[in-house]
């Protein structure tokens, strides 16, 4: 087991392409991410777009952070899939949550898609029901804190594959 149980985000796996921020798995803070009993995280030597694979947890917390421009609206999505042997997701209340600034107020949405997520990488939430966050001009901290959470049920769950996340400016 690693000396620290949680994986701390690394800045390198985030790319910025004209208002589109792409997060690879190592760009997230992942609770229990450094413990291979719970997660498999791609190594820093990996050259391809590997996934963070959830083995099993009862506390799901995968979070990211990015500095954004004020007076803009951004769409937040995670790219996720299930392994064949995924378990514990039916009835587990998984939420996408986001706030602007450390002291900001969370906006949230339950992701019912995770009760029947396909085995192929899928953007959640879908573009038909986007999760949008506005960055006001009157807050000193313009960082977006966002993440996937299921910390309430205490149910064990596994088999989730986190391919990445995107925070993109809505034009």
UniProtKB/TrEMBL annotation:
The gene is LOC18596416. PANTHER family: F-BOX DOMAIN-CONTAINING PROTEIN, PROTEIN PHLOEM PROTEIN 2-LIKE A9. InterPro entries: PP2-like (IPR025886). This is Protein PHLOEM PROTEIN 2-LIKE A9. It comes from Theobroma cacao (Cacao).
């Amino acid at each position: 087991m690693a000396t620290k149980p949680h994986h701390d985000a690394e800045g390198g796996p985030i790319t910025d392409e004209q208002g589109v921020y792409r997060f690879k798995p190592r760009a997230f803070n992942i609770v229990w991410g450094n413990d291979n009993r719970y997660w498999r995280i791609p190594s820093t030597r990996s050259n391809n777009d590997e996934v963070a694979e959830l083995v099993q947890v009862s506390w799901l917390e995968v979070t990211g952070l990015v500095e954004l421009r004020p007076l803009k609206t951004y769409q937040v999505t995670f790219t996720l899939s299930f392994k064949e042997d995924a378990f514990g997701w039916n009835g587990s209340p998984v939420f996408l949550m986001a706030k602007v600034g450390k002291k900001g107020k969370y906006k949230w949405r339950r992701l019912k898609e995770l009760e029947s997520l396909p085995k192929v990488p899928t953007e959640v939430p879908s573009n038909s029901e986007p999760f949008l966050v506005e960055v006001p001009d009157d807050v000193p901290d313009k960082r977006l804190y966002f993440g996937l959470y299921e910390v309430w049920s205490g149910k064990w769950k596994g088999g989730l594959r986190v391919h990445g996340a995107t925070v993109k400016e809505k034009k």
